[in-house]
């Protein structure tokens, strides 16, 4: 296990995440784990009580979690959004742009490389929900 | 042509440094090959049969003389003096060293070029009509749309780990010169009530399961385009198959759930995405479009041509196309000399084409999906001088769209995925039909060769297609008839048992004999085949 | 016989396992018997080779010759550019490849 990495000021949520099925059955859970094939939109009715959504990346090549993250953020989710699993340093910047604000990588990440990777691109081409102004917006004020 | 501003330049420069860092981490062992592979692929770097191969993007097939010179420079300095133009309108180099790749990208960046997303499971280089901005039949120049998509798709945070690669094509005429409906998403620009918009097709492709893209939307306005594509890609990213690499393309998803259901899901997602404000204002579209304003045409030029030189006349007849502006023409440079390697050009030839573009074609060149080069805007009065220069350099083969204008993938001579060689077969077919009169008599005949089922040589879309397979360790070739990548799009069918290399050349010759015997006036090979069916051809070939 | 091949990590050159190190010439290959996978793992781990794999080959008086056409082409170079092969000066060098 690598060290967890958080970009939230309130720190990482401690309650263990339950599976989506358990979460939907249990009215009091506040943390849920989403597997790649599971529908993030199933969580939309419960965003208010969710403090943590942990999105699983069993294999780094499986990019469904990026869409899951954006869907949750676009729908107003403000709790912790954690990428867990085969999370590689070269993916962090894209994950941040999709709304992930914490990471639980299986293998340790080099903090220096993390920092460089996240600061690499000054401006993005696309508008996402990460609050950064896309290049087209900068061009047209 | 589009020119980078500081934002574009800084993004491309950042990418160079990112890749330099990734290569260093690979060489130090911090990255395993498994982890590094998708990163290098997203910078166009493959490990092929003999070495690393670098695929450099030529966005929508357009480049300047200066950029073309850079391609020659890279061929000389980092490769072995040549490059290979591809069916995706890009160029690739076959003998690249990993530790030099970052330097190559840095040199490319100095002329606003890159290798970003020329491979990998992401949105690839946007392809387009090679005659954009010059064709007499276009409703608009498709390149501003393609450039808008280039920027949107570059470093897309959500769509860089898709189930599989994703190819988008934009054209702007009813005649399809870019195999638009054989793309994951094809966009045909159309005018509705005076407003330009895109007609959207999705789920086309070649590979082992060829499909023609069905229409999923009849009109998307410019200021909805990115939202719409974002929705289309999101549905694919979420629901495209990831259990089987051969079923991971969007065509399989659309085939399995049906175009109607896919469209419904995209519309639903679009209704949501459109609320997010991710579409640039039309001012951004206009900013990009201004770069593609027509050059300052000279007025009052003559359309007359002195065709007294018979070789020149042949070249004009075959390779020169009507331009939208009086006095100008579109000149195709064939990279298919008889007996040559389809799509290859030496550094010297690349330099020469660059010089001709600068001097005679408003500094513009195009790369075509048929692996040829175009000088899009030349004065008719300059054609003879251009032809003489090309002829001297071995670049004046007058065979555009004829049987020797063969599309061929690199095949087993270079490619680690190939099962059979493509290039020697292309050479033999070219030699068999070398006589210019014989070729011209056969008329338009699009022959396309792939060395494996991945179909990089577009064999499904050939009037005559050839697929190389491995039969117990020996190269074997299947013959297919009746495909087209044009507006009469169709998928070729296998005619029967396969052949040896020489056998397939003989079979093609027999097929052309059948065509000559059965054709009616004006019929192309593919028209006759469609009319009479496969039987007469099979009978002649298998007897 | 079984021989081990791969590409050099930095240069990408096709290389062959000689029993001690890696050579650009297939003729230098040795029979790895059942040890191929273990050697491949160790050598790849040490980054002395990239993507190594074991192939079948025949022993000939000229040295080992890969059984499959793909590796025979790898061993010499593209068949359509003799000038770019390992033996550009020898017109007969490719006779055993195809």
Automatic annotation (TrEMBL), chain A:
Domain of life, per lineage: Bacteria
InterPro entries registered for this protein in UniProt: UCP030820
A Pfam family: DUF934
The protein, known as: Uncharacterized protein (DUF934 family)
Source organism per UniProt: Sphingobium boeckii
TrEMBL record, chain B:
A Pfam family recorded for this sequence: NIR_SIR
A GO biological-process term: sulfate assimilation
Domain Nitrite/Sulfite reductase ferredoxin-like: 52-109, 341-393
InterPro entries: NiRdtase/SiRdtase_haem-b_fer (IPR005117), Nit/Sulf_reduc_fer-like_dom_sf (IPR036136), NO2/SO3_Rdtase_4Fe4S_dom (IPR006067), NO2/SO3_Rdtase_4Fe4S_prot (IPR045169), NO2/SO3_Rdtase_4Fe4S_sf (IPR045854)
UniProt key word Oxidoreductase: yes
CC per GO annotation: sulfite reductase complex (NADPH)
Enzyme category, top tier: oxidoreductase
Domain of life: Bacteria
Domain Nitrite/sulphite reductase 4Fe-4S: 119-272, 404-541
Molecular functions per Gene Ontology: 4 iron, 4 sulfur cluster binding; heme binding; metal ion binding; sulfite reductase (ferredoxin) activity; sulfite reductase (NADPH) activity
Keywords tagged on the record: 4Fe-4S, Iron, Iron-sulfur, Metal-binding, Oxidoreductase
Protein name in the entry: Sulfite reductase (NADPH) hemoprotein beta-component
The organism of origin for this protein: Sphingobium boeckii
Lineage: Bacteria, Pseudomonadati, Pseudomonadota, Alphaproteobacteria, Sphingomonadales
Automatic annotation (TrEMBL), chain C:
Domain of life: Bacteria
InterPro entries registered for this protein in UniProt: DUF2849
Entry protein name: DUF2849 domain-containing protein
Protein species of origin: Sphingobium boeckii
């Amino acid at each position: 296990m690598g060290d967890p990495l958080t970009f939230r000021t309130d720190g990482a949520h401690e309650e263990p995440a339950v599976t989506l099925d358990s979460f939907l059955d249990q009215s009091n859970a506040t943390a849920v784990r989403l597997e790649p094939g599971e529908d993030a939109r199933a969580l939309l009715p419960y965003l208010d009580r969710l403090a943590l959504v942990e999105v699983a990346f069993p294999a780094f090549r499986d990019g469904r979690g990026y869409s899951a993250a954006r869907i949750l953020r676009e729908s107003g989710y403000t709790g912790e959004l954690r990428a867990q699993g085969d999370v590689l340093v070269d993916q962090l910047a894209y994950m941040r742009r999709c709304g992930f604000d914490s990471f639980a990588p299986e293998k340790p990440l080099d903090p220096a490389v993390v920092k460089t990777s996240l600061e690499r691109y000054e401006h993005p081409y696309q508008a996402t929900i990460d609050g950064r102004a896309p290049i087209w917006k900068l061009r047209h004020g | 042509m589009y020119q980078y501003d500081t934002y574009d330049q800084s993004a491309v420069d950042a990418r160079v440094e990112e890749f330099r860092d990734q290569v260093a981490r690979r060489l130090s062992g911090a990255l395993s090959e498994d982890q590094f592979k998708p990163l290098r692929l997203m910078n166009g770097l493959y490990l092929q049969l003999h070495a690393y191969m670098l695929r450099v993007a030529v966005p929508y097939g357009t480049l300047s003389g200066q950029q073309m010179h850079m391609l020659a420079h890279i061929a000389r300095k980092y490769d072995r003096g040549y490059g290979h133009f591809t069916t995706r309108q890009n160029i690739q180099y076959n003998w690249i060293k990993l530790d030099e790749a970052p330097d190559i990208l840095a040199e490319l960046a100095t002329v606003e070029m890159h290798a970003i997303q020329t491979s990998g499971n992401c949105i690839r280089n946007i392809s387009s009509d090679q005659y954009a901005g010059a064709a007499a039949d276009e409703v608009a120049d498709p390149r501003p749309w393609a450039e808008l998509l280039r920027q949107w798709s570059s470093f897309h945070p959500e769509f860089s780990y898709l189930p599989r690669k994703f190819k988008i094509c934009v054209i702007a005429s009813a005649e399809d010169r870019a195999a638009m409906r054989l793309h994951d998403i094809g966009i045909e620009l159309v005018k509705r009530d005076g407003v330009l918009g895109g007609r959207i097709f999705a789920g086309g492709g070649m590979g082992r399961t060829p499909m023609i893209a069905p229409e999923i939307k009849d009109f998307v306005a410019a200021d909805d385009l990115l939202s719409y594509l974002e929705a289309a890609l999101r549905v694919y990213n979420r629901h495209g198959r990831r259990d089987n690499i051969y079923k991971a393309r969007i065509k399989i998803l659309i085939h399995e759930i049906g175009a109607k259901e896919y469209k419904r899901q995209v519309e639903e997602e679009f209704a949501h995405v459109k609320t997010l404000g991710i579409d640039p204002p039309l001012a951004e579209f206009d900013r990009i479009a201004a770069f593609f304003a027509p050059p300052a045409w000279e007025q009052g030029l003559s359309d007359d041509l002195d065709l007294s030189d018979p070789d020149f006349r042949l070249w004009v007849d075959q390779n020169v196309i009507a331009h939208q502006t009086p006095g100008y023409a579109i000149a195709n440079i064939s990279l298919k000399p008889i007996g040559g390697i389809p799509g290859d050009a030496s550094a010297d030839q690349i330099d020469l084409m660059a010089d001709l573009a600068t001097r005679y074609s408003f500094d513009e060149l195009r790369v075509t999906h048929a692996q040829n080069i175009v000088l899009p805007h030349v004065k008719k009065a300059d054609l003879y001088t251009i032809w003489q220069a090309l002829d001297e350099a071995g670049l004046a083969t007058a065979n555009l769209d004829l049987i020797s204008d063969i599309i061929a993938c690199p095949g087993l001579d270079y490619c680690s995925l190939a099962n059979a060689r493509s290039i020697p077969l292309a050479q033999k077919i070219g030699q068999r039909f070398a006589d210019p009169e014989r070729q011209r008599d056969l008329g338009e005949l699009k022959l396309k060769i792939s060395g494996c089922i991945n179909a990089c040589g577009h064999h499904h879309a050939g009037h005559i297609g050839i697929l190389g397979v491995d039969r117990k360790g020996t190269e074997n070739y299947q013959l297919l008839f009746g495909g087209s990548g044009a507006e009469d799009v169709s998928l070729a069918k296998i005619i029967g048992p396969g052949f040896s290399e020489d056998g397939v050349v003989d079979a093609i010759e027999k097929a052309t004999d059948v065509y000559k015997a059965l054709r009616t006036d004006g019929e192309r090979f593919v028209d006759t085949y469609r009319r009479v069916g496969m039987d007469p051809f099979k009978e002649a070939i298998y007897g | 016989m079984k021989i081990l091949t791969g590409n050099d990590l930095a240069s990408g050159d096709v290389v062959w396992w000689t029993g001690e190190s890696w050579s650009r010439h297939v003729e230098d290959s040795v029979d790895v018997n059942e040890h191929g996978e273990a050697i491949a793992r160790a050598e790849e781990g040490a980054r002395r080779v990239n993507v190594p794999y074991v192939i079948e080959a025949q022993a000939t008086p000229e040295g080992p010759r890969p059984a499959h056409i793909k590796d025979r082409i790898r061993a010499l170079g593209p068949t359509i550019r003799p000038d770019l092969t390992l033996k550009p000066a020898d017109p007969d060098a490719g006779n055993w490849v195809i």
